[in-house]
């Protein structure tokens, strides 16, 4: 139909008709709609008598295309033709700028609005506050809120929600709750969206009791939770370990079931220690007419495995592959392999995984990492290294967790040369060394009787803000007597100072340092004294 419209427009001049602004606007819309933005802009420039709608069409499409230069040029043209953008146009532009992180430009547009005599609406202030909040500039977002009130605009629940969410995401939960108090004192009542933001923020901050209390208060406030609310609460319930709250939380759920909600319930029943109930609910879900998706199958398989119904889980898994329902989703394979390994069925797990790879089913880095971890646990080191290399040959890039599994496996295998190669690989791929990998290196050095180097790595970890594990500290304490006498006291004081401090701290920073990767990776080719000399340079 678009083609016919363009052909009709082309024939107008042949019949002596001059296309008016309405016809040209229709063509402009078609060109943008069919992905011909370049032609559309040329067509716009050739339009001698555009009207306000002409520019509005262009601005809306260019914002959708994230073409800032194009939006800027069209706004200039609007002024050149004597038109003034209205609040709706400014809102579209402001929303585009804030969502693409162009905060400086958004303030320039706000100034432009004031210059042309257009008063910013509540929606425009809200978009601005949301934009600055998203990027963590919450203090400036508060200034915008104050300016908004000074200009005579009254913040609504959407405005406050944007600001509160910004503070929560910035890790300033108490400030967010202060703003909530201000909002309520100003006569603005929270809605479900804001309650969802609060519950999610409280639970992510591990303030589960507060989050659950807000959820249970919804009923008395006549606010009906939706499936998203319930998903937040039930996911938090799994993490909190507050099993006794389960009946009370479930009694507060009164929302229409959809597939997402059903999948969440299957997962919650399983994670909360009721895998048999999860399997029963899965059957109920199917009887209700829901068609299971990949997440449904993953929840069912995990529940069967946790219930000890291994043969049944394998049968269901094979049925999924035969049906083709979810054989393209890597998570299904990962859940199956991980579950079998945890229940001591390594041989069946690896056989199943290799078959998935052979049949070209979609397996990802997580799937490979789970299988590699299982092989290391059973001390099948050569197979683990081989599978790691196969993963890279498949074009999958190892992530930080994969490298940590490999380094820990090298520690178990006492394979310094393999660890050195892995560290070089991490450095080349730009994967940062973290606390977990550093602890693995300490353990490896101890297991290969390179005690002095292990202590220097420990010192480097402290300087870089890493957190040595309890196991590493035990090894270091036990190895103090193996150090030269002149070093024992200094390292003992340092170790004691650290172990005393960990009882007061709960933060586990992981700071990158590729230099450490490169230095430690040379351990296999250095003598003990050379290692000590080089590692000492890190600490200095």
Automatic annotation (TrEMBL):
It comes from Acorus calamus (Sweet flag). InterPro entries: PPR_rpt, TPR-like_helical_dom_sf. This is Pentatricopeptide repeat-containing protein. It comes from the Eukaryota. Keywords: Repeat. The keyword Repeat applies. Belongs to the PPR family. P subfamily. PPR repeats lie at residues 86-120, 121-155, 156-190, 191-225, 258-292, 293-327, 364-398, 399-433, 434-468. The keyword Membrane does not apply. Pfam families: PPR, PPR_2, PPR_3.
